Amino acid sequence: MTDSIKVSELHWLLAIVQNIDVGVVVLDRDYRVDVWNTFMQNRSGYMPDEARKRSFFELFPEVDEAWFRRKVENVVALGTPSFTVWEQRPYLLRFKNYQPITGLEEFMYQNTTLLPLKSVSGAIEQVCLIIYDVTDVATNRYQLQAANQELQRLSSTDRLTGLFNRGHWEEILCQDYARHRRYAGNSALVMCDIDHFKQINDTYGHQVGDGVIQHTAKLIRQNIRDSDVAGRYGGEEFVILQPDTDSEGAMVFAERLRLAIEASELKLEGHSIRFTISLGIADLTQPSSDHSQLIKWADSALYISKSAGRNRVTLYLADSGAGA
After folding, report:
1. Is the Cβ–Cβ distance between 251 and 313 less than 8 Å?
2. pTM to 2 decimals?
3. What mean pLDDT, rounded, does the chain reach?
4. What separation, in Å, do the N-terminal and C-terminal C-alpha atoms of the chain show?
């Protein structure tokens, strides 16, 4: 009776191993296959008779043999399981992904477990490899990360221009100012304003006015360095933070930007529009109390450019009365 129960239990166990939705492979100490379940058959294309007693590394040449052997030998030596997760190693065996919801993934993401299997004598003569398909988990994680990144981008970006919005660029300016206070570096802030923008709006309409703002933002992006931070101040005003830049370098940049916009022509809704910008510059060579003072100085220099006839660049100097 006892033997028949054991045979029945073994039958159930084999049925479970064959039908469970994970890969089950049992390897002997020479890394030859002893057990190969239906999951492995379906994903690998090898029938059990084709896989049995063949080298695991012959069946899966993509496996890092030296690494896998170290993992297995540690399992045997310590007599304890070992695990891999997809975050560290996306897969052990490169199986195609056939899941309908995550069908765009090129391969199956996998977690794995290595279990030591003791014989009747107590010696570990086989190791069981279990492979879990975690493609849904990995895909959902990546989609969530992408969504969070997009939310972060949207929360820091001005919708009309694609430049940083005021809250974000001012936060970066604040951080840069703190760095300046600690390490005594220099930074410059360039502020610019589209000349006669109200006249453009009144003449051509607000849609064309928005196009002029977008065109200005595009030319700013084309002229800044990778390290520069460009943002929209509000309305038709823009700022460009230039870390590790003195007033001379900022003047060169500002003049180049001014000339680029003066030479450009925007064709929109049947109109050919030319316009200019005025610019003001301030840097941190002068004593300051906080980051907002740099904004005030650049704004004062911009006001002088506008008052002096527009389409020009002005550098804030404390002894010149600008911003006083």
Report:
1. yes
2. 0.60
3. 89
4. 103
* Beta-bridge partner residues of 82: 114
Q: How far apart are CA 242 and CA 212, in angstroms?
A: 24
Higher pLDDT, 156 or 296: 296
276-296 in b/e burial notation, b at 16+ Cβ within 10 A? ebbbbbbbbeeebeebebbbe
Name the token pair of 30: 């020479």
- 3-class secondary-structure state, position 264: coil
Top CATH class, 2-141: alpha beta
Domain ranges of the chain: 2-141, 157-320
Tens digits of residue pLDDT in 239-286: 999 999 999 999 999 999 999 999 999 999 888 999 999 999 999 888
Q: What is the DSSP string of 260-323?
A: HHHH--EEETTEEE---EEEEEEETTS--SSHHHHHHHHHHHHHHHHHTTSS-EEE--GGGTTT
**Collapsing DSSP states into helix, strand and coil, what is residue 4?**
helix
Domain 157-320 CATH (choose: 2.40.50.840, 3.30.70.270, 3.40.50.300, 3.30.1490.20): 3.30.70.270
